[in-house]
Amino acid sequence: MKLLFCNKCFDMSVLRYELDQMDLCYPDLEYYCTLVLSRACWPGLYSHRLPDVASHCGIAFHHHDAAEDARARAEILLHVAREGVTANASSDSATGPRRPSEAGMRAQGSATSRSRQILRARKSLISR
Question: Would you say residue 94 has pLDDT above 50?
């Protein structure tokens, strides 16, 4: 399963909580995070919140509507891919695409660089 988060720290915590509450196994998934990607792509933005990044990209949407938020995240990912970012900024937080193990979903694993995340996102989009 592939997911596109807007803030992977928050979104993963919600996913972990809900799965734990229902006593379900953690799924095998890969994910990207538009917050991490936008910080690497447009470091000079005042804010990297979903509505601010969407506005920067010229994307109109109704924030906090699940379908609209998903569409905005997808369009932001496309903008990042078109930018061809080769930033070499790195992060101590886990970034995508990731395949977190069950333990990794509980405590995020080792760091990957933001530039690698962007390059993988671009490859994934180009290969479609």
Answer: no
